[in-house]
Amino acid sequence: MVQTYKTEHRQESIVVNELNIRSADRGRKDIATWRTALTGAESVYYPNRSRLYDMYEDVILDGHLSGVIAKRIDAVLNKELFFETNGKRNHEMDALLHSLSFRNIMRTIMETQLWGISGIEFIPGSDLAYELIPRKHIKPELGIIAYEQTGTDGIPYAELNNVWIMGDPKDLGLLLRCAPYSLYKRGGMADWAQYIELFGQPVRIIKYDSYDEQTKIELKKILDESGSSLSLMIPRQADFEIKDGKQNNCDGNLQLSFIKAMNEELSITILGNTETTTSSYSTGYAQSKVHLEQQYEITKSDLIYTAAMLNSPEFLSILQGYGYAIDNGRFVFAKDMDIDYLQARIAIDKEVAQKVSIPDEYWYDTYGIPNTK
């Protein structure tokens, strides 16, 4: 039977402290593991994301993937944010917005798009404090926070006023698409390392007479004492030939091209482009500008998503519980000032203004001018 967790009991017992937290599985991962984990997460009767999220913990160690993720998240975190009350900026909220806790909450909101779900438990008190709920314990299909990551018994979070669960119950996050590319890339890196180990140094071949055992022993001693490069000892009477594969891959470019292709797929999945992170042989100003505009559209979407989450009734109610005055207020990101766009826009606006009356609010909103009236 599922235990009901009462809100008034929270000051004595934190939800996160009741969970049996398990370490992430750091075992070997491959495409078969990814497919099995996906099947388990999508199960109709017994859905479980624990194996899939263990894989996510593994693939985000990829340097390129973690870099493009940070680039997308930082584009939102570094944007100016303020709180408006009745259409005017409320400076009393600036201290909260500039705090590390609030910045980390925004990061968690952005990470929800990567993982599919996120959960925060806010700790009652005078200051904003919280604990992140391990995602493997959140069961959105059941509406509970499970005691065990693979269990079905837990705490119904809909009854908890201090718990904020974000994300679509059916969404498994962008990392689902990134995982195969990261796993393939890992295999390509291993192949490249093996290629370097085999062919990065010259091969030493020594031939000896098959009947001369004493010479064989002496030659082996010489090879052992003369370095760690690949060495071979063969009887002089044997016919020996090395098929090193260097005729078609003389410099390891095959593996390098494969790794670059995987990095490009990761960049496209997270950022929607490649040129703002790495350059290609055919890159140019026009192509880079198009890619930058594509990424800007994704950033605008992230800003709208983050603002919607911050302005959700759940989060505003939590802030109100900490004593913040949020009545008739909302979080707003500062408008971007694209000079090239505004120059073209103002030329049109001047012509239109000569024919029709344009409200003052339009000029304030379009050109980011503070309204001091």
Can you give a write-up of this model?
The protein is mainly alpha-helical and 373 residues long. It folds into two domains: 1-202 and 259-334, no CATH class; 338-373, no CATH class. The protein contains twelve helices and eleven strands. The protein has helices at 31-41, 50-59, 63-77, 94-97, 100-115, 175-199, 213-225, 253-271, 285-310, 313-321, 339-353, 360-366, and strands at 81-85, 88-89, 118-122, 130-132, 138-139, 144-146, 154-156, 163-166, 204-208, 231-235, 329-333. The strands form four sheets. The protein has a three-stranded antiparallel sheet. Strands 4-3-8 form a three-stranded antiparallel sheet, covered by helices on one side. Strand 9 (204-208), helix 7 and strand 10 (231-235) form a beta-alpha-beta unit. The radius of gyration is 29 Å and the shape is elongated. Residues 1-12 have low confidence and may be disordered.
**Radius of gyration from CA coordinates:** 29 Å
Helix content: 40-55%
Q: In what order do the strands lie side by side in the largest sheet? A: 2-1-11
Q: Main sheet?
A: 3 strands, antiparallel
Overall geometric form: elongated
Low-confidence stretches: 1-12
- Average pLDDT, to the nearest integer? 83
Output the structural class. Answer: mainly alpha
Count of beta strands: 11
Oligomeric category: single chain
What is the domain tally?
A: 2
| Separation of the first and last Cα atoms | 59 Å
Name some characteristics of this structure.
373 residues; mainly alpha; 2 domains; three-stranded antiparallel β-sheet; disordered N terminus
Give the SSE map.
Blueprint: H1 31-41, H2 50-59, H3 63-77, E1 81-85, E2 88-89, H4 94-97, H5 100-115, E3 118-122, E4 130-132, E5 138-139, E6 144-146, E7 154-156, E8 163-166, H6 175-199, E9 204-208, H7 213-225, E10 231-235, H8 253-271, H9 285-310, H10 313-321, E11 329-333, H11 339-353, H12 360-366
Helix pairs in contact: 1-2, 2-6, 3-8, 6-8
